Amino acid sequence: MKNSEYFDDILDRSLARRNALKAGGMALLGGAGLGSGWSEEARCPDEVFEIGFTPVDSVPVNLKKSTDKADKEKAQGLQVPNTYEYKELIRWGDPILAKVSEFDPTKQTAEEQEKRFGFNCDFVGFFPIDGSSTHGLLTVNHEYPDPELMFPHYTELREWYVAKYGPPIPSPSPEAEEKRKKADNNPSPKGGAAVPDLGNANAGKPKAEKPKAAKPAKGKESAPKEKKEEKPDKVVPKGTMAPGKKPSEEAPKEKDEGKNEDHFAGMSDEEKKALFEEYNNVTMASVGLSVIEIKRVEEADPKWQLVMDSKYNRRITANTESVITGPAALHPWVGRTARGTMSNCAAGKTPWNTVLSGEENFQEAFVYAHSLEPDDPRREVHVCSYSFGKERKNYERDWYLVDDERFNLTKNPEEPFKYGWVVEVDPFDPDSHPKKRTSLGRLKHEACTFAEGKPKGDKGGKVVMYTGDDEEFQCVYKYISHQRLEKDSSRPADDILDEGILYVAVFNDDSTGKWVPLTPEHPAIKNAGIHDIADVLVDTRKAAKLVGGTQMDRPEDIETNPVNGKVYVVLTKNTDGKEEINAANPYPSNPGGHIIEITEKNGNHAAKSFTWDIFVKGESGKDGTFACPDNICFGPGGALWVSTDGAPKAIEKNDGLFAIPISGPKAGVPHQFLSSPCGAEVCGPEMTPNQETLFVAIQHPGEEQRGETSNFENPTTRWPDNDDSAMPPRPSVIVIEKDGGGKIGS
Q1: pTM of the full predicted structure?
Q2: Around 678, how many Cα atoms within 13 Å sit in the side-chain half-sphere?
Q3: Which pLDDT tens digit goes with each residue over 585-605?
Q4: Backbone dihedral region of 536: left (phi > 0), alpha (psi from -120 to 50 degrees) or beta?
Q5: What share of the chain is helix, strand, coil (3-state, %, to 5)?
Q6: Domain locations in the chain?
Q7: What are the helix and strand counts (H, E) for the chain?
Q8: Angstrom distance (rounded) from CA 317 to CA 110
């Protein structure tokens, strides 16, 4: 018997019973009467969204190799309907503070990057000032760096640095190596440690391993003092391009030209070492969040402008001091403070005007988890639950090469426990510290979406937060606070996100489901020897699998629809295949992903049970047009706006943004509104309150895909700058508006 079922087993059985309609490879599964018990009237809002634009064509990924200039420009650029216009609002490297120089990618420093818009923008959140749709704060997540696209000849410099200075891979004793091999040959179920051998997290920890820091009085969270780290003077060269020339003056080289050339021949070893270390300090400063004030000025071009001298503009990076709150802050592996935030993917907003940023693939910053002793309980969590030690990818960090004490787990095995949380940031208080809310679980968080439970008496509802764990075979969660909101208060008690219960979703065959609490009192958790809520939260994945949380196809964004009150769960894809836990059918590959529609019991987001249905299923194969849904928002009539990530592999098309009506004759049918530049995913769609402006993040344009080479010198696109600029591709936030005004999509 298995503890935790795979969603596709449930889905296959459910769809077989319901005989869902299929047309053209795209399954439209959200109709009335398909096992949900909902009437058409209950499903449909009063306002039916009518598609008012001519959809753009999907762009084949191979078009960028076309000899036809127009086709090539189409693949390398960005398309929106011909009745709409887009403008870049802000790009990687643009100053967000006054007195910062124009961006020159050949002369980057970490100090300046902390004053510039970060790299790889993901979530976008608009916070109106005084309820305005033309003036507000924008918060943007910056997920990860890509040094090959950020710096000239990075790979060449890295190879030199590793050969000369790189730390050796730790070599455990022969006895430990034998134990490690045995442990790795008997893995836990895919994606999580569902084996009950961790017990209390204090077990197996050497007591004298590191001194304990003084703790604040219980119930009081003390903000860390700002510390300025003293660093020795470094010789940082001004770049490797022709002296005195800006990127726009330097012609791009042909791909094979200078292949074996030493581009750093004129530099000393000390200078090359300093340059490589500075590059990696820049990447640490390029991730996290940006907070900027923006304003629409009708007579300006472009109309949306950055308020450069705003007191709100700031960067939060991998080095920004942060506070850790909630039960896990008392855990000996975690503590009350953290150095920065990283891998910030999607996020959510609260009614009290804070942003909840999800730390996702934090494991990419750390190395040598497998070199910890096999019986070290920290190794079990890192390797079995959180996928440390998977094969390197081009965007995984080199930070351990320049900060060995922080990112080398043989030296600091507890640093990763400070990440994987939801980080609350107050954009209206530039002096505030980010707060990592541990009651929301330690996961590879994709988003954290607020909803309010049913009010009671003179009190408001409980705070509900939905979040997904973005990896194959992981689960869907929601948090319910103990306290209720005050009806007449704009801001709740600060600990409302610290005192509550985290639940995991279980999806049943009959289109019903339940939320199971992750507490030490649950029999499955208690029987596993886990007796403390901090231990549950530190390894949330293990607890979820112990209680039977349904394993999903990469849960990404989760949002509540303001029109019909339903919850939409985005599952981007799963091509990993399924392990046979019992005599079940082989796992059907799901390269195109799908979106689930949840209806909470009695419409109460704090309910413990729900019904579910499939709203739309993505496609695969080169004839497809919609695949790999990622982030979502809602527009006029409650229509679902879906950005994608992974279409180049699933359907051989550039990623895009799609509008999907939730009711009417075209319910569930995707209509493409935007096609991204090659190599990019589309992220963070966000509308202003009047729904007349749409913000979209274009992340990693020019990133390597499908085995092609793309780097600073020879990227597959130079968007948003033109092909003659020699500027590298720059992740950017764009603004889209309808010609002559009007609601987006109309």
Answers
A1: 0.86
A2: 26
A3: 223 678 999 999 999 999 999
A4: alpha
A5: 20, 25, 55
A6: 1-43+441-617
A7: 15, 32
A8: 11
